[in-house]
Amino acid sequence: MSGEMPTDLSGASHETAPEAMPALFRGLSGRLLWMTILFVMLAEVLIFAPSVAGMRMNWLRDQLDTAAAAGIVIDGLQPAELPRSVQDDTLLATGTKVIALRKDGTSRLLAAVDVPPQVDDQYDLADVPLLVSIRDAMDTLFFGGGRVMRVFGPVGESDMIIELVMTDDALRKDMLSYARMMFTLSLVISLITAVLIFLAINRMMIRPIRNLTRNMQRFSERPEDPQRVFAGDAAKGELAVAGRHLASMQIELQRTLKQQKNLADLGLAVSKINHDMRNILASAQLMSDRLVDVDDPMVRSFAPKLLRTIDRAVGYTNEVLSYGQATEAAPRRRRLRLVALCQEVRDILALDPDGGIEFIEQISDDLEVDADGEQLFRVIHNICRNAAQALTTFHPEDSATIRRITLSAQRIGSVVSISIDDTGPGMPRKARENLFAAFRGSARSGGTGLGLVIARELVLAHGGTIALVEKPGPGTQFRIEIPDQPVALEDYRVRA
What we know:
- The chain has helices at residues 28-76, 84-94, 130-143, 169-221, 238-290, 297-324, 338-349, 373-392, 429-433, 450-461, 489-495, and strands at residues 98-103, 106-112, 121-124, 148-154, 161-167, 334-337, 358-362, 368-371, 404-412, 415-422, 465-469, 476-483.
- The chain is of the alpha+beta class.
């Protein structure tokens, strides 16, 4: 059909190409550069207003000081009147239109030319608050020009007051020149500061971050390659610590991937032999059924145990694949006598004092546990078998040392605590650190460590716990705690 989407039958995997690293000035470093320039300029703007206000006040005070010096000279010529030409020169030198001196409560006009009809602004320089000074400076800078202002202030430490009347054109021109200079200086400072910060941050942060990112991309392409593990350094910075953590995580991931591959290979091998193994066990089961009809008393006593063992083997082969898929069957719990189950474990292990290993049971006959019999058998059998294997190869220096496995249990409330203790060499440190890890927690050479992994999973399925107990003497001790299954209220009422 023409409307169908085409199907890719090549079998090739379409992997997304790794995202390219951003350019140097378009990534984090570039944003850092522009932000530094912006923040330095903002700081300069905050400094600019008080600076311009201070420049304006200094300019006005200089004008007052110059006019005051001339005014005192003119005032000393009284009662003679200053010639017109001298007045013009004085006003030109001070840049004013009117100079007046207030002394002893009287005001005297010292020089004047082109007296304006009105004054737009008045400024008293004796006491000017900072905010008022900033406001007046911004008003002159942005809206000044052509205004007539009256400025007055004290002459030194005397009680005389000098007064000037002038336009703000010269003041605004000098203020604009000062503002342009401040802007240029601020821009230069911002650029220099930003470049220095950029170079420092790029060396201390951006470059290590890029190295971390590139390594993550390379490692994600081939995580099984040991050559792609991040090579950290011994520095003490946060990024160096992050790099060492990354390297540790990558090594652990490679170890996990290797274990997963081992598990996958194991599952594949088991699946191949599982079919044939079931057929062999089925044949053995048929032949063992005939042993029941044999009149030999010895055969009759061992035949039921042999049948149960073969039945368990058949059950294990049926559950092997489901365990590989992490779907262990839920426990079918019922109350059972623990002492009978432990005696069956002893019979399967075929332990007796004549073989050099004692098996002691310290369990009362009436102790019952609420559990799945087959699963609890697997748990206890796995641990006891490990203990028996350790004791078999154990040759203590003291010949009087007794090789013994002690299995004890007691009920505390609704919890049954089972202890499995042996007098063997104990577990090595590596096995303790990886106690319940497959292929890593084995205490003997050639072991897989799967026994404890299976035991832990089955105990957790019962809502219980399993742990290695620290003991003062030699040997290994495990404690298993199985709680009773809660009874639903409706079931209790039905039983009642």
